[in-house]
Every structure is written in structure tokens, then in C-alpha cells.
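Feature request disguised as a bug report, sorry. It would help if multi-protein outputs had a clear separator. Right now it looks like this:
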Amino acid sequence: MGGPMLQTRVDAYPTHRIGGFPVRAGRPLPFGARPVPGGVNFSVYSTHATAMTLVLFRRGEAAPVAELPFPSSFRRGAVFAMTVFGLEEAGLDLETLEYGYRADGPFRPREGHRFDPGAILLDPYATLVGGREEWGAPHDPVYPYRARIALDDFDWEDDRPPGVAPEDTVVYELHVRGFTRHPSSGVQAPGTFAGLAERLPYLARLGVTCVELMPVFEFDELDNPRGLLNYWGYNPVGFFAPKASYAASGPYGMQVDEFKNLVKQAHRAGLEIVLDVVFNHTAEGDERGRAISFRGLDNSAYYMLTPDGHYYNFSGTGNTMNCNHPVVREFVLDCLRHWAAEFHVDGFRFDLAAILGRAPDGTVLANPPLLESLAHDPVLNHCKLIAEAWDAAGLYQVGSFPSYSRWSEWNGRYRDAVRRFVKGDLGTAGELAARMTGSTDLYGSRGPVASVNFVTSHDGFTLRDLVSYDRKHNELNGEDNRDGDSANHSWNCGHEGPTDDPGVLALRARQSRNALLLLLTSHGIPMLLAGDEMGRTQHGNNNAYCHDGPEWWLDWDLAEENADLVRFVRNAIAFRRAHPALRRREGAVGHPVTGDLPEVSWHGVRAWTPDWSPHSRLVAAMFYSGADGGHDCVYVAANSYWEGLVLELPAPPGGTAWHLFADTAAAPPHDACEPGREPPLADQARVPIGPRAVIVLVARDRPTEE
């Protein structure tokens, strides 16, 4: 024999020819389409399909190039897998190839099976989705959603996540399109990932640390029976694919790179990216909806079904994903690993997360396998996990969501407590005190970082509308104002909607500052809604999911019009960052700190004498912590009474004096100082607090006597 024999890859050679293409049995895992030497490996799961066909398209063409039925020998268990060669020779490189599946099997809805071999189905694992590159464009009836394969050639340049500690996190929730679509944004590509990247410096200057993006998975914005849009995007179509019409480069199939660049630029600015993810339902709806993907591939596996084959509707949108089915559970894990590993995102907020803890029959599980798996998954180890701990069927788990020492929750009870107190409701002082100190009554040993505190979110009134409307005004939604929550705990300050009354406007501005200042001085993770810092309105609509237009987008001219409010929020965030007493990881339960003051103490009109009676409208707290061997002490007082009060002050730590950081009753710019430049109080024994106002003091070294 001559030289050593060269080893060749046996799996790089075809064994069959189907549909004009050389093929061989593929690898079952991973699911989806993956380039391999000489071709592409296609793998799709279906337990109940009797036959599967791969349909190949050339991008933009309605008719398929070829249809390749899977031989029975290419099936392993419930997985159909095939490697296809010769694609490039047929003009189907990775930039032009599109594909889908036809799944044949029983059509017996009462048994949960809805197979239709006439439908071309989207691969659930598609990393790109074609067909929706233009926002709002009509559906092409002969051009359904098609799967594409994303190129893996992005240069991350040693990207490193900021790794912001939970207690240091300040979340800013925004809608990618709405954030920069308005002409006033001044970006080159309005309403896109690239446009958002241009506005990251503004967010960094504001002081937030985490940008929470409303859904960016591929979704159907036309999915609204009333002829409006599904603007928010809580109806996913392609879970692994960034939304093409959110990318300036989407028409060129470059949405993956554009989104990755957004994440890279955010990390360079010290900002984390958290995705709002929707695993509780899909865009396929109930039995009246169309088969896009899951329904046609394996309906009874992917969805929770009643005994007679109808869809459980715990999501309020027609169907509910069967998240604790083993295959669906792995699908969710694979999806999140994909976004964490391939896109470097820093965490996830789970829409209607209580559904993720339900069994296939809808009962609530004590130890949900999916939630436990997410908490302990090695790829997701450093990702923030945030639950919207309720669902549309009445399951409310705020404070009891299975956390596995990893999950945080949107704290709906915090939202309601702050709203009701600021509004002036009776019987709210004790509730507010519990929420300000990290809701230890709800989270116990989990600590304040289990609580994501918020006053407003995308779902409900904006902050400006919260102080401008007593009632929701959702008439434009086409549902006779029946949609949206009616329990808003809002107050119009004396006039419903827009007004020129200077007294009403001044009170609204003060009430806005009150809510923001309480939010940013409470223990827990604060979350702001985009535009609240500049007075954005939705005209009293508290369910604006279906509206897309200049009056609904963020008008950046408001940042100048309400520059005092932007400055106030920026200073309040900076103050929070400067004071460890406000950023606790463990709950403050009143223990003395190094034998000195307690971690938190409560006061009233008289120091050390709080009033927890039902008629009390005053809450005053002194937060104290050790900081690098020193001390940090902050006093927060909130008065929702319509008259001013004079408060007796507790003595600050030895050698310090009280300095005034913020007084929401003061006219701007005196409503909040730059942190570190707070003036000392002339009277160290007492301080006035205005009607419907919040004040914040900080203990600093006594001024040097001249």
C-alpha cells in the first residue's frame, strides 16, 4: 500500500435521489434546517403524521422548485430527517432558499388531529421567516410564511454582556417600532432595530440599565378581525426569527445581523437587552384560525385541548400552548437558548407566565417542569427571568409563582398600591409601606429583587393618562369600549382629558412626579414605560394594542416640551444609583445595622410614630444601610392628603445632617437636585411636606461651619 488512507465523511454522500435532488437520511437533532458539508440537514418533529414532505422554494417565487417526500426509512421515532445535497447547483444557496413542510395524517378534530396535506407549513425552528418583510403589507394568498436559514457570519467583536446585578437594574419597556417611527425621532431608519440603536445614547444618559423589548419574534401584525392591526405583536408566528419588518435590512434578509448589532451596541453602552417572549399562545388561534405551523404539524402535542378536541383558552386569544408537554418544553428551551447564545440577549420577560405552570389539562402544577428547567438551564444561567405571574383565566400568582430562586415577577400589587395611594384612596398606607420595602410579605427570602416594581406598562394607561383620565377611552378599538381593564385606579385631577386649566395641569405634573419618585426610591427592580419620562399620551386608551400611527408613536418633541420631567427622572435614577440603601438584595425587616439604626424605620407626623390607621394618608420611611464600612441613609415621605403637613424628623446618623434631594411640590427645576449637590435643611428637626407631595432627604456630612 502507498501512503496512509484518507478518511472520508460517509455522511457527506447521498444515498437516494428524491425530487431531482441527491439526499440521504438526515440527523434527527437538532431540529430545524442546518447547513452540513455539501448540503442542508432538515429535521422536523411530528408524532402523529403519517407522511411528511419537504417543499423547496426559490425566494420570492410562488411555485415550489421541488417537493421531496421523506422515505419511511428517513424517520427516526417521531422525527423526519433528511440531508439534501446539490442545492447550490440548482440555484438555491442559503440566501435564496426557502422551504416548508406538508404533513399528512388524520383529520379528526375531536381527537385533536388537524392534518391537511394541502397546507405548506412553517418550520417551528426557522431562524428566518420570509413573506412579511414590509410592515402592514397585505398577505399574499399564494405566498405563505416560509422558512429561511440565517447565515452565521456576524462579528461580535468580543462582545461582553454588562452583567448588571438585579438590585442595580432599572428597566425601560419599549416597542421597537413605536419608539423611533415618529418623524421627530430623527433616526435614519425609523421604526427599526437600527433606529433603536441610534437612540441608545439617550437611554444611557437617562440612566436606565436594561431595555425590555416588546415582542420581536416574527408575528402577524394583520391578525385583527376588526380591520385594525395587531401592533403590539403578542401573536407569535416564528419563535426563532427576528421580525423582518422591524429591520431596515429586512427586505434583504439581514434582520438577524441588524438585531445582533442592536444588542452589541446596547452592550457597548452598558445596557442590557431583555425580550418580552410569548410562549402561552400562537397566532393560529382557535379552530377558526388558519394552520401556519404547529396546528398542521402536531396539533395535539403543541396545544392544550379539551376532551372533545377544542382549544383551552387560558391566554384569551383562542389557544394555549401545551408548555409542559416534553417536546414543547424542549422547544421553549431551545428557543431561549438560541436567543441567549446566538443573539447575546440578557434575559426574558414571559407574557402570561402562569400558563407555563399548567398541566396539559389546564390544572396548576405544584412543580412545573418547564419553569424548573428554565431556572436551572446552563445556557440561561446568567439570563434574567421575569414572569408576568398571571394569565387570562384568573390564575394570579404574584408572590407565589414557582421561582426556584431564579425568577422575578411583575408585581401587580405594587402597581395598584402606588396608584391607589397617590390617588388618595383610604386604607392604603400600610400596603404602600409593604410595597416600598420590596414586598417582603410576598417574596420573603427571595428578597426585593424578586419584585419588578412598576406603575405603568404597555398594558394600561401611560403615566400621563393615569393622571388625566378617570375612565378608559378605547372606542377606537372597535369593541364599544368593552376591552381593556376598568380597574385603573386613575384620577383625572379634576378634568377628564386635555385641558388648559393651569391648576389641573400643575397637579397632574406633581402626581406624575409622585409616582415616579416612589417607584425609583422603592426596594426592588423599577420598570419605566417608554415615554412616561416625557409625558407621552395614548389619549385615554388603556389597550392600544391595535393602533399604529403618529398619534400613537413616541413623539420625541415631548422630550423638549417636558424637559423638566426628563431631568427629574434622570436625577431620580442617578440618586437611586448613588444610594445602596435603596438597592437592597435582601429584604429590610427592621434589623439594626451594625448595632446602629434599623434597616428601615417608619415615621409619621411625629418621628418614630407611624400612622397605619385606615384614614392615614402619610407614609414616611428611613432607609439605612452600611456602605463600604460607612453609612447610607435616605428618608422618603409621601403625603396624599390635600393639605400640607409639617413632619418631625428622626435624627440622622451621627456626624450627618439632612439634605433635600427632591420635593415634588416645588416648581421645576427645584423639584429634584443633581445627586451630590443637595442643599442642607435649615431646620434639622422638622420639614414641611406639601399637599399631595413626596419628599426625599439624604443624610450627608454636616456642612463645614464658616
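(second protein starts here, but nothing in the output says so)
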Amino acid sequence: MVLHERRDTVPPGFVSNGPASSNYTLTLRLGLAQGDIVGLEERVILISTPSSADYGKFMSKEQVEAYVAPKQETTTAMQDFLAQNNLTAKIVTPAGDILSIDLTVEKANSLFDAQFQTFVHTATQKRVVRTLHYSIPVSLKGHLDFVHPTTVFPELLVSDTFIASFTPGLPSNTTHGTATSSSVPSSCSSVITPACLQALYGIPTTPATQTSNQIGVSGLLNQYANQADLKDFLTALRTDINPSTTFTLETINNGQNPQGPSQAGVEADLDVQMTVGIATGVPTVFISVGNGVDGFLAIPQLLLSQSNPPSVFTTSYGSNEAGYSPAVASNLCNTYMQLAARGTSALYASGDSGVGSNCNGAAFAPTYPSGCPYITSVGATTGVPETAASFSTGGFSNLFARPSYQDAAVSGYLAKLGGTNSGLYNASGRAFPDVAAMGNNVEIFYQGSAGLVAGTSCSSPIFAAIVGLLNDELVAAGKSRLGFLNPLLYSSASAFNDITTGSNPGCGTNGFPAEVGWDPVTGLGTPNYAALRAAVGL
């Protein structure tokens, strides 16, 4: 046996409750070494770089799987291991690189030289079974990337900093309507409606025409999107859209979307109202994940199994990067790389805790998966004129290196930052967020009432709606959809409204200041639709 992964201490927010019951059944995922992930990465960069001759030449499902599928020697080594230990595995990914096995804690401890314990998440009292270390047979070294969940504590996903909070009622001076000019309605200083976003960012209201172009919305943690709330939203705030316009539903692992008024989730309502209500006429699909599945992995794997996945999907959930092991984090990031090869844009809210929560000392705490170089991380702004929202999480990954597409922008910011926050962040890490959008005092309808929400949970679906509209225009013009956005965005900085005021305090500091150009609070800035149209060749 050889030690494979280890944590020296229990992650912040968790306490051990002693050894797990030996008869408790674990479902473990075995991540196999992917065949040619380096070759796929090289291909994705070419496909996603506007100056490349291969820009927009996305790959088929079968082509991507050929890069990811394990080599024969890896498959053989794993089959031998399973047979020797009387284990039956199920293939759970399209490329066959992740297997699932069921076994007792007693057997898992023996097979992987582990010590599975029951841990309690102190904030929620939720119990999970994990181990702080595990080993693998020498015969699987180089073939088995990870066993999951073992040293990963993804229950940090439940952090309230990623779930929108709803404040019922509206200020007395609130007005509704559709923006008719570039001027921003005065009511937008206190309440953000679709009219405000149309005026701020120049978002068109012309209905989309391409039914093949979809926006996917992630639904996790028993958050359900309510159709009646969406109808109320459209009736009040988008009078030019048929109020019966709705979304379709896809489910994973017994996911559901019940429609009882009290079952509506504020996060799910927010996400579908910002996509359906902003991306006029672009079909939206709500993807609901049932309990027992890591949604960060389940949703992209579902999309990879489809012949025509949504052109963009948005997720308003996340967790602290420290909760993930490097192997699992890397594998999940590779999943987003595969989606990039297929032509899907993956957007994630950056988080609502400034430079970090659960700082575990003075060092900043980046969020996940914002640190993955193959997703677009979205921060938040507030007010008119816009300034950085103080809660907008941003910083630098401790797991992923800075990608070349953001070298110039980030290096310029670090030069201006100088010694501020020195030693509290990884200056060579992947920097985030990439972009921003309005994230405060956003009006939605929830459980039959109008009210306000705040968070990067607002910003990510707003930006996704804009991408969806651009994709509609591109497809209508006979061009490729945008796919992985970041190389284009960083080469088109003038297509954004630069946010130069505000900061994101946290961890006992003032955080990072917003500056001219990219910054780790609002990224490149907020979108200018007309300038983005020009940048994508429309």
C-alpha cells in the first residue's frame, strides 16, 4: 500500500464524532487516470482562443470521450483489483473514467488502510462519514487518481454565503416597466428590475429565435423553481413576455421540482427568473439534483452525456476550496474542460463572503469551483452607478495555477496592489472572479410575494442570460456559439464597464480594492451588450 491522500487536521466547521459504524454502507467513486487529458487541454485552448484558426470548432461527444477514456492498462489494473476483492462497479461517467462501488466501512478501512469516522458539521449538525487519510495498492499507482468521498468535505456547500436571502416587500418608490432608452430609471437606485438591467447593460428585448440554444440552471440542496412565482415575475416585470412562459425540467438521482407554494426555493426562483426574465425567448432548463449526489459533478456529467447540451449553464452554489482534495478538485475541473470542448459555457457565482469565510487564521479562503480555469466566475456589483459589492468573493486559488489567458490582466493588478495583503493569498494562483453583474437589491417573486435578494447568486444567472442572447444571435447568423468564455473575455476587456470603486473585506482585513482594469472583486467589470456583440463578430 502507498499513502494516496491525507489531511493533517479536521477542516474548520467539522468535529469528529468517533469511528463510523463498521456495518455502515459507503458508496465510493473511483476516479481512474484519464487517457490524454493534456492533449484535450491543448485542443480546448485552440478551440477557445479567438485568434486561433480552430476557434469555435467544437468537438463531438465521442471525440471528447476518446481523450478522457482510461488507457487499457488502467482499465485492466482496476478490473483485477475489483475481482480480487469481490467488488462490483458501475460506470458513472460517459467516458468510463469514474466508477462507483458499494461496500461497508469495515471493508473500506481494510482495502484502503483508512479510518472512516463520523464527522458533524457544527453549523447544521449534518453528519458525514469521512477519513483523514487513505492508501491504495501499489498496483494502482498511476491508475487510480482518487477515492471519493474520503478526504473531501463538500458539505461546506451548505454555507449560507451561497444561498440567496429574501427580504419581502419593496421600497415605496418602486416602479415597474420596460426600459425604453439607455437612461437608467431612477428607481434602480433602490430596486433592480429587468428594466434596470436592460438599461445598465444594453440588453435587448427582441425575442430569441433559435430553439436549439438553451440555458441550463443548476438546482441543488432541495431548492425548487416555482412556475407560479415565475408567472408573477413576468406579469409584473416583463409585460412584453407571455406570462405563461416557463422552463423545462431535467432531474438527476431522483431529483424533483414540486410546485407547492411553500416548497419554492428562493435560490431556484431567483435563478430561473433572472434567466427566463432577462434572456427573452431563450429556452431555459432547470436541472434538479436529488440527495446523495455531488451536484458539482452530477450536472456537468449529465450535460456531457447529451448530444446537444445547453450552450451555457449557471450555478449559484459553491464551497470553500479547502474542503476539496487536489485530486478531486482537478478531476472536476477537467469535467468543465470537457464541457468547454463541447462548446458549453460554465458560469459560477464567486461567493458572498468577501475574501473568505472560515479563514482558519489570517489567510484568505478562496471558493470552489471559482478557482478552476475552465469556468467563468461571476462577482457582484451594487448601486447606480455601479460599485463593487462588499460581499463579492474574489481572490486567488491555492490549487490551480494562473492560466495564461489572464496573465497580463492579473500581473497588472498585482503590480498596483504592491505589498497589500502580502502573505494572505497565493499570487501565482488562478485569479477570480472573471466578470461581474448586479448582485444587490434584485427584485424577484418568491412564494407569491415580491421582495429583494442579494448575492453573486443574482450575478451569475444575469450574466448567463446575456451569454444566452449572444449565442442566439450567433447561431442565427450561422456562427458557432461562444463555448468556454475566458480567453475571449480577457482579450476583450473594453467590452466591459470597468468598476473601480469598492472592495471585498473579510478575514479581518479590508480585502482587495477594485481598480482600473481587472480586479479580484469585479473581475473585468460588468457587461456592455453592444460592445460584446462587436467582440464576438456580430
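Even a blank line would do. Unrelated, but nice: DSSP finds 13 helices and 26 strands in the chain.
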